[in-house]
Specification:
Elements: H1 6-16, H2 23-35, H3 39-52, H4 60-74, H5 76-81, H6 100-113, H7 133-144, H8 148-154, E1 158-164, E2 167-175, E3 181-186, E4 198-203, E5 208-211, H9 226-243, E6 247-250, E7 256-260, E8 266-267, E9 271-273, H10 282-293, E10 301-303, E11 310-312, H11 316-324, E12 327-330, E13 335-336, H12 342-347, E14 349-351
Antiparallel strand pairs: 1-2, 2-3, 3-4, 4-5, 6-7, 7-12, 8-9, 9-13, 10-11, 12-14
């Protein structure tokens, strides 16, 4: 496989990393790749072709398959450098028309390009083959339910796909974590193209689920269509992990992390890694830390080792305010999960340089 001479490639990259680098220099580099017959030039062309086609355009799916294979061949580091590949956390305006089929294409595009979860083609067949948003939802859940990492990147509530307890005429699409709120469609409307979604909350006194009024708080309400519900779930979770979270941001090397409002923390079964594309909400992080220490989250104490700050975890608003002010955590590498403790975390805390502070820093 032909490739641009590594020494020349390194020289190009060095030029492109300078503050003075512009789009013209970037295009000149791509032209050099093209002249050398480098496979990266093929990816550049494919990225441009896919971006130019509307969702659902003839041949777009086949081009995406080829493009994705090239992304894997070339590797994450190069793709990330030039903005190719999945960009979790990056907003990409997508069409939201009236027709249901294009809405589902938009949802798939968002899930793949903005959340980094790649869906098998068999799980997103042309909408016309089944014509039901409930079926499309069931296929989406089927595609991600066996991967806790993928599921957690999309939704924070639990899979249901069964009748609402005590309400056999309602089919639950999703249930809130404490099992006291369901999003459901009428059983008789399950095969409709895009039926309305009803919110139902548990009445603890009557021990039964009762409907909520339309226009409820955030996602805890009703939706005119299933596609609106799916979009609402994705967007509400995205807002949660962007604005009210206790997250690590990691670069690939060295592993420097922001504690606060930045990029996501990724958790694997046996380790916590920096710089991955997975999300954990504030409450989930507290659960992890409390499990590790064998105490309740309200009892966790976090102390900045330089002695000027002492934080009581009963007041997480104060904790978040401190983190916004630009404290960073620097770890040498991925921390083994069993070794992550409050002590290890806080010992790594140091004030960030002014130009390193998170986007919400008040200083």
């Amino acid at each position: 496989m032909a490739a641009l001479d590594p020494k020349l490639n390194a020289e190009w990259i060095e030029k492109l990393e300078k503050p003075s680098a512009d789009m013209a220099l970037r295009e000149a580099y791509f032209a050099a790749l093209e002249a050398a017959g480098d496979v990266r030039a093929d990816l550049v062309r494919l990225e441009a072709r896919v971006s130019a086609l509307e969702l659902g355009a003839l041949g777009r799916a086949a081009l995406k398959t080829r493009r994705n294979a090239l992304r894997q061949t070339i590797g994450l580091a190069w793709c990330d450098r030039f903005g190719f590949g999945s960009r979790p956390g990056v907003d990409r305006p997508l069409p939201w028309p009236e027709d249901t089929a294009t809405r589902w294409l938009s949802l798939y595009e968002y899930i793949e390009e903005c959340r980094g979860v790649w869906l098998p083609e068999r799980e997103k067949p042309p909408f016309a083959t089944h014509g039901s948003s409930v079926t499309a939802w069931e296929r989406l859940i089927g595609a991600v339910r066996d991967s806790p990492e993928d599921y957690a990147a999309l939704f924070r509530d639990a899979i249901s796909l069964k009748p609402v307890p005590g309400s056999p005429t309602l089919y639950s699409l999703l249930v809130q974590g404490e099992a006291d709120f369901h999003w459901a469609v009428a059983q008789e409307q399950r095969r409709d193209e895009d039926p309305p979604v009803h919110g139902l909350i548990l009445d603890y006194e009557k021990n039964e689920f009762v409907p909520v009024r339309p226009g409820g708080f955030g996602p805890y309400g009703c939706f005119a269509r299933v596609t609106d519900f799916v979009r609402g779930m994705l967007e509400s979770y995205d807002q949660l992990i962007r604005s009210d979270r206790f997250i690590l941001k990691g670069s690939r090397a060295p592993a420097k992390a922001y504690l606060g409002f930045s990029e996501p923390l990724g958790r694997r079964p046996t380790s916590i890694e920096l710089g991955t594309a997975r999300h954990r909400a504030l409450g989930e992080i507290l659960d992890v830390l409390s499990d590790l220490m064998g105490i309740e989250p309200s009892e966790i104490k976090a102390t900045q080792t330089l002695g000027s700050l002492s934080l009581d975890a009963d007041d997480w608003a104060d904790l978040r305010a401190i983190l916004e002010d630009g404290w960073v955590v620097t770890l040498d590498a991925a921390v083994p999960f069993e070794e992550l403790t409050i002590d290890a975390l806080t010992k790594a805390m140091t004030p960030a340089a002014k130009d390193e502070r998170g986007p919400n820093s008040r200083k």
